[in-house]
Design brief:
Layout lengths: L8 H13 L6 E10 L8 E10 L5 E10 L12 H14 L7 E5 L9 E5 L23 H19 L3 H4 L12 H11 L1 H4 L5 H12 L9 E3 L8 E4 L2 E5 L6 E3 L2 H13 L15 H12 L6 H23 L5 H16 L1 H5 L22 H9 L3 E2 L1 E6 L5 E6 L2 E5 L4 E7 L5 H6 L2 E7 L4 H7 L13 E2 L7 E2 L4 E15 L2 E13 L4 E5 L2 E5 L7
Helix pairs in contact: 3-9, 7-10, 8-10, 10-11
């Protein structure tokens, strides 16, 4: 969706002609015409294609088409103008990488020429998948055969993989974080929290709930910091013969985890299909295939994707609120984005939908810290030791796919609809880092004869999985299922992680599992007990 017309075409052409005349050596008879809105132009910057003609010192007439991009003024989607940052990044990428980024030919910082800073870029020929009408509804993408649509989608994904493979340090991209050393998600969440009313002064409750959920469930950022496109989507690519020839729109670029870009790529496509009530085009790979393809291209594993999908839906909801307010009128853009945010929350973060809508509390509303002395630690420990519990081995895999596990009796059912459970893990556990990073885990409730397995996984050394029979879970990030030693196993997707005292609480959404015909191993007063199932006499 392009920025509405901002200027008088005749006056702009005259000013640009004079400006070009000062920059083209020996040029005479400089003229500017056209000023047509560029195909696929976004709303954050005014983008026009201009036709430039001039005569050189030898009298030869030259004609060239270039792209004019003007920094936002009246129609400012974001509260802080990052136009100079965008220009700087685009110049680095065009000059020092193999990404197809249009070259910046000139950058004018003086706003007196056109009322705002602007840049002149090379024009790249090709086709852009349209947002309006959606490429899922009509247009050249919809006219492609299904295999060609799939090739187009994967070509866009390949651009993301190439982008994320860049080493940010030698490129000197620290300026993208504006000198803020905090992790990406801290920076981003603070930005949208601080400027919430700028984007959405009457923001929907779903956006407030999403922000609170995102703050409370922020995953650790332990992977490498990558260059993020920010507005990663098919509509910001120019294609020729199904191959990307230009990567556009760097105004949301940052450095952070690649999952943020992949989630945005998926969500914006979902908005242009399901979000507006249009069937998604056949032939285009779905979410699972897209994630797996990206992982194969990069040799890395995407983590915490559900979190980043909520983050993408939240940001898009706020941005569309701002765009809708600037455009005026009753357009469905923000309404559709809000409905899709609510669906995303229901799928990825159901607890956010039932939480009260948060507000900023004045200081006097904040509950004072309790000063009552806690129970004696030994008494507290003995109290729970007096209660029999099941014995489980919690398993997952680390970033290299290595199986990890620990013995635990701190497992509790939380909800039936959706099915949720929680596990508590001591901060000293060597398995904890893998659990905090993984997207899933398996709870293996041990059978009556598996005391030796419990003791093995309670240790902190040795190969815990030696001589243990297991298989990879189908729905819990390949976590090991101890099928030979379990009475029950439950495959879980990690829903949230909560730091609590000397433990971490992991909330898991149960996706699969099985009950086996075996007795159960229990733990009571620091001893093992066997609970055998009753069998009817034949």
């Amino acid at each position: 969706m392009p920025v509405p017309p901002q200027r008088d075409v005749r006056v702009t052409a005259e000013r640009l002609a004079a400006w070009f005349g000062d920059r083209l050596p020996g040029a005479t008879d400089v003229a500017v015409s056209g000023l047509d809105t560029a195909a696929g132009a976004g709303f954050t910057n005014e983008t026009l294609i201009i036709r430039l003609t001039w005569r050189d010192a030898e009298g030869t007439t030259h004609t060239d088409a270039v792209v004019l991009r003007v920094a936002p003024t009246r129609h400012q989607v974001h509260p802080d103008s990052r136009f100079a940052t965008q220009v700087r990044l685009q110049r680095i990428l065009a000059a020092e990488t193999d990404l197809p980024v249009p070259s910046v030919l000139w950058h004018e910082e003086d706003p007196s020429v056109l009322g705002a800073p602007f840049m002149i870029m090379e024009k790249v020929d090709g086709k852009v998948p349209a947002d309006v009408p959606s490429y899922h509804r009509s247009g050249w993408v919809a006219d492609l055969a299904p295999p060609q649509r799939g090739a187009l989608w994967l070509a866009g994904l390949d651009v993301l993989a190439r982008l994320h493979a860049l080493d940010t340090e030698p490129l000197g991209l620290d300026f993208l974080s504006a000198g803020d050393p905090r992790p990406y998600l801290d920076r981003q969440l603070d930005h949208y929290d601080t400027h919430f009313t700028f984007y959405a002064p009457h923001g929907p409750p779903a956006a407030r709930r999403a922000l609170a959920w995102l703050r409370n469930h922020r995953p650790p950022e332990t992977g490498p910091v990558r260059l993020l496109w920010g507005d990663a989507r098919l509509g910001n690519l120019i294609f020729q013969n199904l191959s990307p020839t230009a990567v556009l729109d760097w105004d949301m670029a940052e450095t952070g985890p690649p999952e943020s870009d992949v989630a945005w790529f998926l969500h914006l496509d979902r908005h242009l299909s399901e979000g507006i009530g249009v069937p998604r085009l056949t032939g285009m790979p779905g979410r699972t295939e897209t994630v797996r393809r990206y992982e194969r291209l990069t040799g890395t594993r995407l983590r915490h994707m559900e979190y980043h999908e909520v983050f993408a839906a939240f940001r898009f909801c706020l941005i569309t609120a701002r765009v809708t307010a600037l455009l005026g009128g009753d357009i469905p853009l923000h309404r559709n984005a809000t409905q899709l945010l609510e669906r995303t929350l229901a799928e990825r973060a159901p607890s956010a939908l039932t939480a009260p809508c948060p507000r900023t509390a004045p200081k006097e509303d904040i509950m004072p810290t309790r000063t009552t002395d806690p129970i004696n630690t030994a008494v507290f420990r003995d109290a729970f030791a007096a209660l029999p519990t099941s014995v489980a081995v919690i398993t997952t895999t680390d970033a290299h796919g290595t199986p990890k596990g620990l013995t635990s009796n701190a497992v509790c059912a939380v909800s039936m609809d959706p099915p949720l459970l929680l596990i508590c893990v001591d901060k000293s556990s060597r398995t904890l880092p893998a659990l905090l990073q993984a997207e899933g885990f398996v709870v293996n409730f041990l059978s009556e004869d598996a005391e030796h397995v419990s003791r093995k996984f309670a240790t902190k050394s040795g190969d815990k999985f030696a001589e243990v029979q297991y298989r990879a879970a189908s729905r819990a990030a390949d976590s090991p299922v101890l099928y030979a030693d379990s009475a029950v196993h439950l495959e879980c997707a990690t829903e949230s992680r909560i730091e609590a005292g000397d433990h971490w609480i992991l909330l898991g959404r149960v996706l699969d599992g099985a009950v086996h015909d075996r007795g159960v191993l229990l733990y009571h007063r620091r001893s093992y007990l066997k609970l055998r199932p009753e069998r009817n006499a034949s």
